[in-house]
Amino acid sequence: MTGAAKLLREYNIVFVTIGLCLVFFLISPRFVSIDNMSAISRQIVPIGLIALGQFFVVVSGNIDLSMGMGSVLFAIVLGVLFGATGGVALGIIAVIVCSLALGFFNGALVAKLKLPAFIVTLSTLFMAQGLSGLIIPRGQQIFLMGDFFRFVGAEKFLGVYWSFLFLAGLFALAYVVYNHTRWGAYVIAIGNSEENAKLAGINVDRVKIGIFMFSALCSGFAGIILSSRMGFVQPGLDGNGLLLDGIAAIIIGGTLILGGRGTIAGAFWGLLFIGVINNALNLLNVVDVWHQVFKGAVILAALGVNWWLWQSRQAEAQ
Amino acid sequence: MSTAQISTPPKLQLDGLMLRYAVLVGLIAAASIGFGIANENFYSLTNLGILLRSISVLFLVSMGMTFVMLTGGIDLSVGSNVAFSGGVGVVALTTTGSATAGFVAALLAGMAIGWVNGFFIGRLRLSAFMVTLATFALARGLALVIYGADSINVDNGAFLWLGGTSWGNLPVVIPFVAMVFIALSVVLYRTVFGREVYATGSNFNTAFVLGRRPERTLIWVYILTGFLAGLSAIITVGRVSSGQPWTGLYLEFDAITAVILGGTALAGGRGRLLGTILGVLLYGIIINGLVLTGTNPFLQSLIKGLILLGVVLLDTFTQKGRAT
Amino acid sequence: MNYLSKLSVGAIAAGALLGTTALADEGTLDIVFINDGHVAPYHVAWLSGFEDAIEAYDEAFSDLTVTGRWLSAEGSLEKMIQQAEVTINEKPDVMFVNAINVDAFEPLVAKAQAEGITWIAVHSPMESADYSFTLGDVVNGRNQGMAMCALSGGEPYKVGVMLGQAGNPSGEARREGILEGIATCDNIEVVAEQPADWDTVKAQSITENWLTQFPDLDAISGVTDGYMYPAIAVATNSGRDDLHFYGYDGDIPIIQQMEGGNVKADILLSGTREGWNFVQMAYRIHKGEELEKVYDFFTPLVLTEENHQTALANGFPEDVEVYYVDQALEVAEKGFLEFGPDSVM
Fold this sequence. Notes:
The complex is a heterotrimer. By secondary structure, chain A is mainly α. Chain A has 14 helices and four strands. The longest helix of chain A has 27 residues, at 204-230. Chain B has 13 helices and four strands. Chain B has helices at residues 11-38, 45-70, 78-96, 99-123, 128-147, 157-164, 173-190, 192-202, 204-209, 214-240, 251-261, 273-292, 297-323; strands at 152-153, 166-167, 170-171, 242-243. Chain B is globular and about 55 Å long. The two termini of chain B are 34 Å apart. Chain C is an alpha/beta fold. Chain C is built from 13 helices and 13 strands. Chain C has helices at residues 2-24, 41-60, 77-90, 106-114, 137-151, 169-182, 200-213, 228-237, 252-255, 271-286, 305-313, 325-333, 336-339, and strands at 28-35, 65-72, 94-97, 118-122, 131-134, 157-163, 188-195, 219-222, 244-246, 263-267, 294-296, 301-303, 322-324. In chain C, helix 8 links the parallel strand 8 and strand 9 (244-246). Chain C is globular and about 60 Å long. Chains in contact: A-B, A-C, B-C. Chains A and B meet through helix 6, helix 12 and helix 14 of A and helix 5, helix 11 and helix 13 of B.
């Protein structure tokens, strides 16, 4: 029952995404081939991880701008340790530890010192950007070759990329946590009103720190997957583009930027929407100068259609 | 000059902000002395002229961003808008040959993007972050299309005058920025519109209940930001004596950083233009000094992050110290 | 105002004084290199070659103090203009400026020259500059395209070309050259052209899409080696071991993939070489040598010996300068071999 109601509530972005796919299919039938779907599924993984981590942050009424540059930094941490030791394990452990530390730092400043998340994470964005160039030995790109990187970057299970399965698994886990645990309810409560959450006896600080640690961990995973797919690391990766795509995904998916509202399913559809647009730009051979116009116009149109569908539903309900 | 205008907001608010301004002035002094010691050229009049001219556009855009952030919004599209409105202005100038047509076209183009932002944000109540993220891509794309991804040379003296001329070491754009600052201060502190900006930021719904028209205020705030982006475009074209599709890249991030440094609250309703001016100055001095000392760009990013966090932390601790 | 202008006259006088003393002092050479970026693999090699060369020249000539620094505009034109203005005020001896857009720098060139600074326009030539350091992008691109013709074996051959950022002059010139070269034979079909904005992540997505969209794609050509890293990784991981790559830049890790690998041709710029060449050029100007106003960076085509023979047999022009892999790697790794202090002693 709740499932059907939720599905209805998310109808608009589903409509928009499917409608868009239909248009692209009419222009280029290859768009819906298995191969292309598989390519999209792989491309959206890093964006998806950013979106998922950001989802909880945004629902709690905050934002984490450091996620994109964070994942670049963590990719380089992995690369530097791989370059130095030739092994993967130490690098993975270091990424997990460093990302949790960054998340704790962000979360503690936001929760304990009551600093705005926007400012805290904007400054850690700059710091991550700086560190990513400072920790890599001068004049180097580090190649990441080996079974682990091939497995993460390119291996499939029953025709589906492992990295996508990992993302889907995380989304499923997040769905359960968000909808069926107390922690999920706390996040929403904090997003609606921190005061009330406190009055209700929720340890707001601890939940907030946890949220930021989770988002940073997600950017750590994104860094690992991104670098494995690339096969090399270097500090010039476009972390901010990743961040903005991730945020766009969840907001298009109906998450309220001011907090307190949003669904995991919506975030997932928003992610597909962004993935489809990025893929279509290449697939349809859109002439280069029109790329940005296309992207901006499509997002704006989606926002408008979203709004219109929402309006007409409101009218029907009355 | 500025003390005369500071009068309206409640006392308590002013105290908190005054403390921030004292911190900023202290940091500006410290940074200037530090860079002055590191490089004797820092204090040369030529360098000060370069410094001021290089941040003139940031001054304008940041003042617009202050209005937006006072309403609790954000505008990620300003940098792209500078490129777009510059493109429209330059094309109008080259096709008609009239500088006036160029000016009008640039300003109108900037205001048009501002209107789109304002309409979606104010009327449809969509997230400012999301809407301006879309126009961020859209305006940059349109700029690329208008220019055909190439630059256009401009040699019309009247069009280039504002951004390109200097009286001795004083770029003419500096007194112009000061005039804009005064005009915007009057708008913000002495008009009904200014009060509505603060009211909208404090609480959109309350403003609505009180019979105000916050959606209309929002639309005008974004149009104002667009107008300032248009002005910035004219200055930029004058500065580089050509129209460029990639101008204003990441300008919005610099402006947001400067406005935050200046003490304007992200949630809206609290902040003043003077703080933004100080924030831009501090930001500009640091960037100028880092160029003079040839600092590694990665180290520059790290320093930028540390300063931003440091200022906000310092603020928090001093406020706490006073409270107890 | 009056007071201000008096002050500025004073400052100019003081500046002129300082300037003359600096000029009179033959024992120093201060070089500033303003670049458009600092993170792409080519940039990293370039800037470190420049740093190494400054150090080497400073050590090699005991009567001359060579100093230098580089600045990165991080892709922003306004930032680059500010950096150039600040640098001119510092009055170095030589400025290398890789202008994001040359038109915007005309007024600054005049200003720098008035201060006695030698302005060297990097990559995009400028009429007003003292010298222009150019790459011959069109010729290089054509060589890449012709190499593709000669190595494609005469069968129908499908290629995707990855471009630079829209409007970037180097990228446009390279593209023009590559397409010209490809047009010299009729078996090659360009099935797609996409801008990757000098961004490796975009290059990766584009490669993935192309492999899906064109299952029978034979080769990927790029206007920078930065695209080759992800393209090679994606192709290898997708089991497309038969895909060929045509690069541009002479990045060492890419040249290393030529012998027995799928990189068929590359253009030997090499960032390290270029950084060293800058310092050598500045030194020669300082010594009063007369250089050509448009200085063309020597950028041979890189092929394996075997492929070169094949290409020649297929009608590849003999007068195109070709370096084999070993030679290319050696000069790329050791910039001092061609442009070190020994080259001018």
